[in-house]
Design brief:
The chain contains nine helices and 13 strands. By secondary structure, the chain is α/β, with parallel strands linked by helices. The chain folds into two domains: 139 residues, 2-Layer Sandwich (Nucleotidyltransferase, domain 5); 163 residues, ATPase, nucleotide binding domain (Nucleotidyltransferase, domain 5, 2-Layer Sandwich). The longest helix is centred in the C-terminal third of the chain and has 25 residues. The radius of gyration is 19 Å and the shape is globular.
């Protein structure tokens, strides 16, 4: 039996991952390159081409019927371009057109990486069976995506749900995005670690100064490390409550490296949500850890093309499928 696969691309500041994904969400063939984030746009595209070269060399490639791309944002699905904040070589880069050329004209769907995670979690993960959910990645940055009315909601440009850049501290630190006091500026891994160090926390003998090391200290009862995670949880809770109040989601799914802190993050987050999600229609908001893991971006990029489930693909007027 001939099987259709989707070629999926997950683009971040550190790696460019590619895969062939089947209709059950299975990842069949993989390829990966480091993102040459500080180099030219063409050099970065070269890494994308190498990933596709590896996938296309596999015999299963003949079954590839479409390409789904989840990229660090912002993206512009209408124009088919990407401008990831942490990849300065790409500003308005025509990624959809270039990928279509590399893959021999396959239709390409582009969404932000947070939208891709939402698609993955709704199809295969913790948001399965939920019609209205916010799915988040808390990592080097903070991103998100929305499932509303049972369908992925990428928005016209593929960025809807980008909760990391809701301002939760009106006079807060300037964020690289240009705004102030953004969720990401407080709750991302590097910003948790930055605040902890500034407040007097010090790494152990191994010199590890990451948020993971802060989380380990917090789990051991270190007061500054604990405060750093409580502060991050409060920022997340304020952004989540605002989002839930605006669009009525009943579930928040949180993945990404910082979520691996477990109860160090989820405990204070649930407590803070009680302070911010106070209206009757958001009081029942549930928080769950993501289930799709490191393959979430790839599975979600594939799901955003409509693979595997009716209604998961972009609706009319939402993120464009270019070249279909």
């Amino acid at each position: 039996m001939h099987t259709d696969y989707v070629a999926a691309l997950d683009i971040g500041g550190t790696k460019i991952a590619g895969a062939l994904v089947d209709g059950t969400g299975g990842v069949l063939v993989r390829a990966q390159r480091p993102t040459p984030a500080k180099e030219s746009g063409e050099r970065i595209m070269g890494a994308v081409e190498e990933v596709f070269g590896e996938l296309m060399a596999d015999p299963l490639w003949v079954g590839a019927s479409a390409v789904g791309i989840g990229s660090a944002g912002p993206v512009d699905a209408t124009a088919g371009t990407v401008s990831p904040v942490n990849v300065p070589g790409w500003r308005g880069f025509p990624l959809v057109e270039r990928v279509r050329a590399v893959t021999g004209g396959l239709p390409v769907t582009l969404v932000g990486d947070g939208v891709a995670i939402a698609a993955a979690e709704h199809w295969q993960g913790a948001a399965r069976g939920h019609d209205n959910a916010l799915c988040m990645v808390v990592s080097t940055g903070v991103g998100g995506g929305l499932v509303l009315g049972g369908a992925l909601h990428p928005g016209p440009t593929g960025n809807a749900g980008h909760i990391g850049h809701i301002s939760v501290d009106l006079d807060g630190d300037l964020c690289p995005c240009g705004s102030r006091g953004c969720v990401e500026r407080i709750a991302s891994g590097p910003n948790i670690a930055r605040w902890a160090m500034g407040a007097g926390w010090q790494p152990g003998p191994d010199g590890d100064a990451t948020a993971a090391a802060v989380a380990a200290s917090a789990a051991a009862g270190h007061p500054i490390a604990t405060a750093a995670f409580e502060r991050a949880a409060q920022a997340l809770a304020a952004g989540i409550a605002a989002t839930a109040t605006l669009v009525e989601v009943d579930l928040v799914v949180i993945g990404g490296g910082v979520s691996k802190a477990g109860e160090v993050l989820f405990g204070p987050l649930r407590r803070s949500l009680r302070d911010y999600a106070t209206l009757s229609f958001v009081q029942g908001l549930k928080v769950a850890p993501a289930m799709t893991g490191t393959d979430g971006g790839l599975v979600g990029a594939a799901a955003a093309t409509g693979l595997g489930a009716r209604g998961l693909g972009a609706r009319d007027g939402d993120a464009a499928v270019v070249g279909g």
